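User: Continuing from earlier, I have the next pair ready.

Assistant: Great, send them over.

User: Here they are, in order.

Assistant: Folding the first of the pair now:
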Amino acid sequence: MPRIILAGASESGRAQLSRLLAASGFEVFRSCASGGELRRALNECEDGVAILAGSLPNALPDELAADFGEAFQLLLIARPESLESCESPEVFKLAYPCPGSAVIGALEMLSQLHAMRLPRRTGEDKRLVDRAKALLIKKEGLTESQAHRRMQVYAMKHNVKMTDYAAELLQGSEGTEV
């Protein structure tokens, strides 16, 4: 099951959604009240499903889709007029108010899409990526999640697999212990 990040300006709205998700067997990884908090959580979490309940400053759904769409499925629950301003086809939209069953159905579908879309690294590929992250941590003073995100962003921007980029990083650092 993917990690779920819930974001919305209304504390009571986030709490209500969190209870709905918990009653359906979904666990909220993080609940965010601001756009900055949401972006930090998305960077830290690395992949999953983000639910945006309404709008948040500094967290426009189109921008989030551009920045995090490769790793996250995005669900926007908002009033119809707010949904119209979101143009990204990567954002799944539900008009508010909507029944809880619609939210759960959308989340189940997005969870399945998430599972199909993100290949999991195993064995040698995972060791290669972990070694490259360790190199970035050592050379650049990054945290593990920052190193992962830097590699992820580079791979997405240059349309290469993260494992290929990890191999490039390690080759470029020949003679350096990792």
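And the other member of the pair:
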Amino acid sequence: MKKLLILVAIFSLAVSAGAQTRAQNIIYTPQSCWRGGEMPVLPLNVLIDGNLRAFFRHVGAADWCSVEGENRGPLSSVTMPKFQPDDEIEYFFVVADGKRVLSRSPQIYRVKVTEGCETPWARHTIMVIVNCSPVGSGQIGSAMASGFTIGDEIVTGSTPFGSPDNPTPPVGTNQ
């Protein structure tokens, strides 16, 4: 019985040591709602240098749009465009250096836009530049959204699928 417990303990330590996760560099408290007809301001704490960007879309839409944020460490913020009451929006944050993603928010957030919401909004912003990618263009928003379904495990050894470097899947896979 002792040997079995020791083996279980060793196995659980090996599994937990093998599953590496990324450090959380974007700290954000989701807002319960956004005010309709106003540009919501989302405060964040970003622990690394890089370009802060928020990706968003209407729930059920295929294409992602993005806006630049201001990375000022614990005083970082992103000003989103105006949405209409009763819209539902999905969004997440990325810190990037050029095309290389340095960090991402731990999940895709979801918010409802209402008329009576009292969360902060921008009062003196003249323009927010929104970049929307066409469906299937391979832009970072679609790639990051797909990445949220994968998780943070680091794959070592041969992968279970092909890649541009090695297009043929490993022997023994059904792909």
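Worth noting for the second one:
The first strand starts at residue 26 and ends at 27. The longest helix spans residues 2-18.
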